[in-house]
Design goal:
single chain; Rossmann fold; 5-stranded mixed sheet
């Protein structure tokens, strides 16, 4: 469902990743595409404490959309969407982080501490190569545009540059 422009301020979009690790850049690349469409995006490495501070600082009523690379065993470039409040499998798939405590642990800890936003949607793009210094795969690059367009529609923003 589309939202009007005034609704954009109630949504925090967090793009996670590392541009130096191949497909791990997926979330950040989506975030940069969204910025080209005029949508505010917070970039994060995926470190747990920083993530939790980001959504806490956004306010109790803020909706959060988080984008990151995932490893589920699906074909590279596959897009998955989860509700963080309901998904018990999140920790199995958000394992691309170089941090000891990453996105999955932030979500689990926030659930335990009752600090998870009231609505948190996770967009995962299946990665296949995470080597240091590697470039994102073709499959991930194609998925980046698709996820950016989907999120732009979700927040009620234009999906094309004018």
């Amino acid at each position: 469902m589309s939202r009007d422009a005034s609704r954009l301020k109630d949504i925090l979009i967090i793009a996670c990743g590392n541009t130096d690790r191949g497909d791990d850049a997926a979330g950040l690349l989506v975030g940069r595409r969204l910025r080209e469409l005029g949508i505010d995006v917070c970039e994060q490495t995926g470190e747990a404490v920083t993530l939790m501070e980001s959504w806490r600082d956004a306010g109790l009523d803020c909706e959060v959309i988080l984008i990151d690379a995932v490893v589920t065993g699906a074909a590279p470039g596959t897009i998955r969407v989860w509700d963080a409040r309901e998904a018990s499998v999140v920790s199995d798939f958000l394992r691309c982080s170089t941090h000891a405590l990453g996105v999955a642990e932030a979500i689990q800890l926030a659930k335990i501490l009752d600090l998870l936003p009231p609505r948190m949607q996770i967009y995962g793009i299946e990665g296949k190569q995470f080597e240091m210094g590697g470039a994102p795969s073709t499959e991930v690059l194609l998925a980046v545009d698709e996820v950016a367009a989907c999120i732009a529609r979700e927040v009620g923003a234009p999906t094309r540059l004018s």
